Amino acid sequence: MQTFVTSAFQHLGLPSEDARLVARCLVHADLWAQSGHGVQRVPMYAGRLRAGVVKPKPDVQIQQTAPSSCLVHGDDGMGFVVATRAMDEAIRIAKTQGVGLAGVRRSTHFGCSAHYVRQALEADMVSLVFTNSSPAMPPFGGARALLGASPFAAGAPSGQSHPLVLDMSTTVIARGKLRLMAQRGELIPPDVGLDKQGRPTRDGMEAFHGVTLPFGGAKGAAISLLMDILSGLLTGAGFGGKVRSLYNDTDAPQDVGHFILCIRPDVFLPSTDVFKARMDELVSVLKSQPCAEGSEAKMMGLDFPDPVS
Fold first, then answer.
1. Nearest by Cα to 201 from 243, 173, 225, 228
2. Using alpha carbons only, how large is the chain's radius of gyration in Å?
3. For the whole model, what pTM was predicted?
4. Which residues are catalytic?
5. Per residue in 142-201, pLDDT tens?
6. Domain locations along the chain
7. Whole-angstrom distance, CA of residue 209 vs CA of residue 150
8. How much of the chain is helix, strand and coil, in % rounded to 5?
9. Whether CATH 3.30.1370.60 fits 57-171+214-263
């Protein structure tokens, strides 16, 4: 599948290395059971490349703005390519400064945030990865979609046990999953979305084109607002409902913003190995906790192997 998807994006004008990167991200999303961000999106990305609102060969520019920070201008390239470059820069800075911050403007949808968290883990970095996105939910108490389903992602390396890989939408369910369930003819769970008239619906496509509700009510909406401030307003990217839709707007580029922070694990501790040992201890404590009565799921995924080596 990676070979096929790589070939498709090469045909659409991406350099070979970038095409392989995008293919790997999409296929891994499926292997991580995140099919809403998987290869089913290839036709949509292809359509945006053909429409000229995404550049297959962007001129990505890096500007050092302070000893610990840089600004990445994505030139409307594939978000996978732009965000990977931004994470590379954040890691590079963190290695010498202890922390490295990359702000990104003029990017596009970048798939699973977990890709970039795992990229940081390979460099033994703690990371935060934020992005904003097109309107999907209203501010708490509002009636019109304004804030994005912008995910909150973080990672922390460990030694012999599981690292932390957190990647969660600020909506009850990711918009891509709503669309995928509708395509499969499945009903979405109740209390997940509203149609265009503001009525509760279990039709995934109606919720997709209507309003997706935040998780935790006001709390999820507030975190989405924070994602918009850090990823959009702070970086100079689109914000306040100005990020264009990935799905049905090919009139102009999206102008998505990303906020990427890397932290070297030894900034407060004697060494990275000490941090990893402490993470192993935390995982051991978590795994020793009793499960709630009737729980069928493995607690926090701690007993599941990683399907992607």
1. 173
2. 19
3. 0.91
4. 109
5. 778 899 999 999 999 999 988 999 999 998 887 778 888 888 899 998 888 888 888 889
6. 1-51, 57-171+214-263
7. 16
8. 40, 20, 45
9. yes
